[in-house]
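Tutorial sheet, problem 5. The two components below are modelled jointly, 674 residues in total.
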Amino acid sequence: MKIHEYQAKELFRDKGIPVPEGKIAETAQAARAIAGAFETTVAVKAQVHAGGRGKAGGVKIAKTPADAYEAAERILGMNIKGSVVRKVLVEKGSSIAKEAYVGITVDRSAKSILFILSAAGGVDIEEVAEKTPEKIIRFRTQTRSFPGQQAAEAAGKLFDDEATVEPVLDILRKLFALFVETDSSLAEINPLVLTSSGDVVALDGKMNFDDNALYRHENIAALRDMGEENPAEIDAKEKGLSFVALEGDIGCMVNGAGLAMATMDMIKLYGGNPANFLDVGGSSNPEKVVHAFSIILSNPDIKAILVNIFGGITRCDDIARGMLEAYDRMSIDVPVVVRLTGTNADIGLDLLKDSPLIPASSFSEAVTKVIEASGGKVKEMT
Amino acid sequence: MSILIDENTKVLVQGITGRDGSFHAGQMIEYGTKVVGGVTPGKGGQSVHDVPVFDTMKEAVAETSADASVIYVPARFAPKAIREAMDAGIKLIVTITEGIPVLDMMEVYHEVRERGIRLIGPNCPGLISPGKAKIGIMPGQIHRQGKIGVISRSGTLTYEIVHALTGLDAGQSTCVGIGGDPVVGSSFMDLLPLFEADDETDGVVLVGEIGGDEEERTAEYIADHISKPVFAFIVGLTAPEGKRMGHAGAIVSGGRGTADSKMRAFSHAGVPVAGTIDELADITVQGLKHLT
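Model answer (C-alpha cells):
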C-alpha cells in the first residue's frame, strides 16, 4: 500500500525526523491562506501516488501568497500519470546547501533490509545509480535490529561535514525504526537536505507498506486513499479477487496469478489484447465467479471473455456452477470462451453443455477462439 | 530417484484440523504419501483421516519420528509454526500458507538457513515426486513418474506445464513450486544442484515470473555449475509495469526484473526459452530425446 508525501511526513514528524512545516490544501484559496500565515517562500506540491511528479510540473515554488494561489490553481486537477491531483502540500521553503538520498527497502535477493544512501540525491538519483554506482552506499541487516556500526560509517559520507554525522545517524535510526514498526516495504527520503543554516531536513518522503502486514497496523491501514485506486480494483479486492485493469478488449478470468499472466501473454502473442488480469484465487466459491463476471463486464470495452481454469484446489464444477449463476443473474451479451482442465473438469463441462458458453479443450484453442469471438484476427503461429 | 521426498518420507501436517489442512491431508494420503500425524494446539488426542493429532510438534516428532512437515495454518501463525517445526528437528518444512508479512519471513529465512533446514515456500503449491509422494496441494493425477525435474515460482502455471509434459509422455522426477513471495525458503539455485546430482533426472524445466532478479542470477549460475540441460519459460511479458517501488526499487534491480531481461539472461547462458507452455513441453522433450 502506498501513502502520500504529507502522510509520510506526518509519520516522520511523529518519530522525530525533521521535516519542513507544512499544511494540506484542497483549494487554491486555502493554499493562499497557508502561504500567508507562513510569511515565507513556500513549495506547493501535488499529492499523488504516481512518481515523476516534479518533472510533470506538480511542484512549484511560490514567493507570495498570490503566487501560491496561482500555483495551487494550476496543480489541483492536474492529471499525473493517470492520477488526478486533489490535494497540495504547502510547505515552508528551505534554503538548500546540499541534497542527499536515503532509502530503506527489502532486498529480496539477499533476504535483507537494505539501506541505500548517496551524497548525490535529487530527482536524478536513478541515473546516478546507473552511471556512477560507486556513489551509492549500500548496507544490509537480516533482522529487525538497527545496523548501528555501518549506519554510523555511512552517515559520515553524506554531507562531508562533521557536524551532520550525528543528525544523519539519528535520522537513519528513526527511519529504520519506523520501517520495521510499520512493516514498511519502502521508506525513502529524496532529497535529504543540508540547509544553509546547517540543519538536516527530510524535504520529501515516500513510504510503502506490506499489504500482508496491514492487519496489525490499523493506523497505517487508515491512511489508504481510495481516490488513488481504480474503483474496479477496490471492488475486486473486497470480494477476494485479484484484479488489474488493462487497456485491451478481451476479459480474462483465471485461477492463479502465474496462469493469469500466462493467459494474458498468450492472448497478446496470438494477436489479441487482454483487458485485465483477474485471479479468482484458489477457493471453490461459485459466488466469486459471479463477482468476477460483474467486475469484468463493468468495462464497456469488453468484446469477449476467456475463462481459463486449471483445477487443483479449485474445482471446475464449482466454477461451472458460478458461471451458470452469473448467466441467470446478469445479462452477459458478449461471447464467453471456457476452458476447464483438472479437478472435476468433466463434471464442469457437462454442466455447461446446454449453455451459450463456448467450450475449448486446450489453452491455445481457447485463446484462438476468444480472439475470433472478439472480432480480432488470430496471428499465424509458426 | 527423486529429490527431497519419496515414498519413505514421513510427513506431519501442521494445521491438520483446519479446512484446507484436513482436505489436503486426505489427498496426500490418497496419493500414497506417508502422513504420520498432524498438529493442532488443543486438539491432541483426536484423529483425522485415521492419523493421530498432537498438541505440539515436539510431541508429534517424538511419537512418529517424522522428517518433513507441511504447514496450512493462517498467515499470522505461520512463522511460529515454522519455528516450532524447526525446533522439533524437522529437516524439510513446506509452507503452503500465503500472505505472511515479508519482514517475518526474512527473519525466519535466516534462522532456517543457519540450522541447515530446508524450507519450501511460503505461498507455494508444495512439491511432488510422482508415483511416490506429494506434499502440498497440487492435483496428483496430472503428474507422471519420469525423468524431468520442474522448478516453478507459480502454482497453477506449474500444473499447466506438467499437464503438457505428461501429455507428451514425458514424466517428472520431482516438481517443486518454490512460491512467488519476495522471500521464499528455497530458490532455483538452491534446488538445481539437487537435480544435477539426481541419477534419475535428465533435465530441468524452470518456470519464472517477472519481479526480482532471481532468474537472472540463476542463469549465470547454470552457465557455471549445471551440466544437465535446462529449459525455461517466463510469464509476465504483458504485465503492466505498475507497482514501482520508489527509486529504491529501480536502484536495487538495476534494470533487471522484466520478462525481457530474464529471457535474455537465460538465452545468454545457453538455456532455451520457450514462448508458450506447449512450446516449453516440446523443446524439453526434443532436447532430452537423445538421453532416452
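Marking note: The longest strand of chain A covers residues 96-107. Full credit if you identified this.
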